[in-house]
């Protein structure tokens, strides 16, 4: 019999996690600055440590299955959140947001992402509870998303927001230049929004796209709403610091999106197999479960997810090293220019 996570633990966990996010938001706004590599690394390490402690508590208060589902879900959502950062970088660069104020923009983006994912989690949980065939839709959507992830680049994704931005500029007074981190400013005596508003909307739209991808992905690992929601919170915690920790490296992880595409495709196939296993559609096997459809275990899912991320990241780092060596060799062979 599957263990039940105590209600007091679920309530306490959610309250504590939300308080941590609020404290992080207040800190970002009260002290705008560019975090050092050491500061960012310490914060990222802290949040990763908290996630592992939480997994241990799930094991102690629940069982091994709960802990494994959380870790697999957290790693999946974390990888998708890192992918989200690529688009954030493009948006920040496009609107020339000073690095000093990027913390504030990132925190707003994270809060928007959390709210959107919370809404989709509640909707997804209700759909799954009432309509088992929704697993077919989730699975097909993830396979489609995986293909799109493999063939599109992040610049293409960021450009999809341009239509919305043009629409806003035609109907709202928006200044041409930023005014620090302010949302509104005064230009020639007229109150106007700054481009920060457009940045927030662009990031919010990006969050919406990623929420549509990430929620079906984690429901392919667990259907427990508490684990789904906490995995998403932990994936978003420390994302602001990770942005500054990775710095310029984030643009150079060229194979990471292939790893994420593989993860999405794998979970999509897993969802379809699960849908066959619990099939109720009359035109598939007469409305009966397809007995030969295998169920992929959480252990297998965790191994595949971690393996894909390690291979994709490792391949990207090797390419960086090879390119650096090649550039050094070419520089050494280039003739010196006479002064």
Specify the biggest β-sheet. 2 strands, antiparallel
Separate helix tally: 12
Order of helices and strands: HHHHHHHEEHHHHH
- Overall tally of structural domains: 1
Low-confidence stretches: none
Summarize the structure in short.
Helix content is 73%, strand content 2%. The chain is mainly α and 339 residues long. The termini are far apart.
Structure description:
The structure is a single chain. The chain has 339 residues and is an all-alpha fold. The protein has one domain (7-330). Helix content is 73%, strand content 2%. It has helices at residues 7-30, 37-61, 64-94, 99-130, 134-151, 154-159, 162-171, 195-219, 225-236, 239-246, 256-277, 298-333; strands spanning 184-187, 190-193. The chain has a two-stranded antiparallel sheet. Strand 1 and strand 2 form a beta hairpin. It is globular. It starts with 6 loop residues before the first helix and ends in a 6-residue tail after the last helix. The model has no long low-confidence stretch (mean pLDDT 81).
